[in-house]
Design brief:
2 helices; single chain; elongated; mainly alpha
């Protein structure tokens, strides 16, 4: 993996993490929060 790919992957991962955090903060109920976490975990693997 080239250095540029590593930088791009790290940037994408941090962007995704910020988006997940934002979604969790704006979640209206614990059920929505659980669903967001389930989707996020599925996306990571």
């Amino acid at each position: 993996m080239s250095m540029i790919e590593r930088i791009r992957n790290r940037r994408d991962a941090s962007r995704r993490a910020r988006a997940i955090e934002r979604a969790l903060r704006s979640a209206s109920s614990p059920a929505v929060r659980d669903e967001i976490l389930a989707i996020a975990q599925r996306h990571m693997h």
